[in-house]
Amino acid sequence: MLINVAETVVADGLRGLAAAHPELTVDVESRVVVRRDAPLEGRVGLVSGGGSGHEPLHAGFVGPGMLSAACPGEVFTSPVPDQMVRAAAAVDSGAGVLFIVKNYTGDVLNFDMAAELAEDEGIQVAKVLVNDDVAVTDSLYTAGRRGTGATLFVEKLAGAAAEEGRPLEQVQAIARQVNENTRSFGVALSAVTTPAKGSPTFDLPAGELELGIGIHGEPGRERRAMMTSGEIADFAVDAVLEDLQPSNPVLVLVNGMGGTPLLELYGFNAEVQRVLSQRRVAVARTLVGNYVTSLDMAGASVTLCQVDEELLRLWDAPVSTPGLRWGM
Amino acid sequence: MLINVAETVVADGLRGLAAAHPELTVDVESRVVVRRDAPLEGRVGLVSGGGSGHEPLHAGFVGPGMLSAACPGEVFTSPVPDQMVRAAAAVDSGAGVLFIVKNYTGDVLNFDMAAELAEDEGIQVAKVLVNDDVAVTDSLYTAGRRGTGATLFVEKLAGAAAEEGRPLEQVQAIARQVNENTRSFGVALSAVTTPAKGSPTFDLPAGELELGIGIHGEPGRERRAMMTSGEIADFAVDAVLEDLQPSNPVLVLVNGMGGTPLLELYGFNAEVQRVLSQRRVAVARTLVGNYVTSLDMAGASVTLCQVDEELLRLWDAPVSTPGLRWGM
């Protein structure tokens, strides 16, 4: 690993983020990343966060048109309420703050506590829970479904709504609508190595893959002998479509887990598009890349987000963050 | 690997690129990627290309403000002259075409032949050779220095100049100036696995790293026991500064080789910035991410590009490609 010592990986990453992105305010000690122009008069603030190791999620999605602030925890470990309260205070203009929470037990508990503390300080807080992963329910770290790729869509679409000056109640409603219209399924082709452990956190023999993997390497549905890109696309897309029958066009995220080359991700996208076409699902936009990662894990996930014209307009709206940028 | 079969990896990748990016014209059979609005009246066309496996380089840098077209070869294999001539013909508006060529023997020969063929067809062609890697001279596949991270700067800065309508001679002069002002040094923490071989192409034991690696896993200067991120930054930056003593500020590219998590790259950037500050090198802009990759290889490279006010203005100019986008 390209690190100093495991203990400083998150702080080192934040120092490097600050150096590369002067348009962000990075509090390395308190571990809060805020867009420099916050709070914005009359605009709802969007705060998310979670364990580190999923970059560019979440800190890489802070900026105009997306998150107002992010709170990175230790690797694969929830941030603490103090970070979230600081972030809320930094971005609240009086219009309130939306907490975007991936459904992992630690994150849910800590964001709940932070919401109470922030309300005590006079900040109006609404929440949205992201739980899009159809692979399993009640996984390691999670009661119910895990939150994965939908987080990007919730942060982008709710962020665009907040940027337009919509009130907290509407921004929350959009975030919930996006989560309800979004489903994901992921596969791992190799295990993930955390800095603290220094070796793979689970055992996945070469020549096998895990279908339905979580973004922390949590077990999925089953192991199989290696499949082709086309076979994996069939399995993943069908798993999503079992749970989401889109009548409207979808946004497609073909997401790399971190260790799979972009060339392979694009090839996988070709197969995902083939399956969607065969299933008569219309595609409005497609995003391919490493966005919701699991450190160095090889593998990919497919996320489909059903959109109406309004959500598509919010997707196309300008965004300027380290990890996602267009139109400005 | 997330592939169908090794033989279709490049074609599959191009099909997936086409599906995700309707703003590009992707000829999968001829393997040419062109911005959809080409040729642009009165503007110089910029054509690059090389072996696949380095994505987003080069096809991911096609679009307004950067390349007009790219020719992807097989994995780690030069494209053929026919691709380059097709690309030149597709983007030439009469103002001529600049070939941007990384210094590998096969690429140089093929682009030379393509230039002759294109001139025979009445297209005015100028060339720039990119050879920024200070690690070694006369490596595997290369006479002289290898072309690596500087390619991104040459393509971006010359692309911005072409977008402004500068004549071919000036666009070529800028491209050469950028190459002369840019140096790189890379390290590998793991070997690279090509689809054709299916296993690591060289042997790099866990707990060791290769200093001065090439982007195809070519040997560097030396092997050592694993070093910290800070020690690697000292070594890499000093290797660059032995060869380039910047009197002006620099653009910094902290580039991942494909398999290193973004969290680690940002941490490495913090150390690179520390060394630059200690060596009293002023930093104008910093870019961190996987841009000039080597499939799944773990590791990183540092590229410094010395800029005057004019080059900095060209860097900040709007660009809209799959891999690099701002300002539009």
UniProtKB/TrEMBL annotation, chains A, B:
It comes from the Bacteria. It comes from Streptomyces sulfonofaciens. GO terms for molecular function: glycerone kinase activity; phosphoenolpyruvate-glycerone phosphotransferase activity. It is an enzyme of class 2 (transferase). One of its GO terms (cellular component) is cytosol. InterPro entries: DhaK_1, DhaK_dom, Dihydroxyacetone_Kinase. Its EC number is 2.7.1.121. It catalyses: dihydroxyacetone + phosphoenolpyruvate = dihydroxyacetone phosphate + pyruvate. Homodimer. The dihydroxyacetone kinase complex is composed of a homodimer of DhaM, a homodimer of DhaK and the subunit DhaL. Gene3D superfamilies: Dihydroxyacetone kinase, domain 1, Dihydroxyacetone kinase, domain 2. Coiled coil: none annotated. GO terms for biological process: glycerol catabolic process. Keywords: Glycerol metabolism, Kinase, Transferase. The keyword Metal-binding does not apply. It holds the Pfam family Dak1. Pathway: Polyol metabolism; glycerol degradation. This is phosphoenolpyruvate--glycerone phosphotransferase. Residues 5-326 form the DhaK domain.
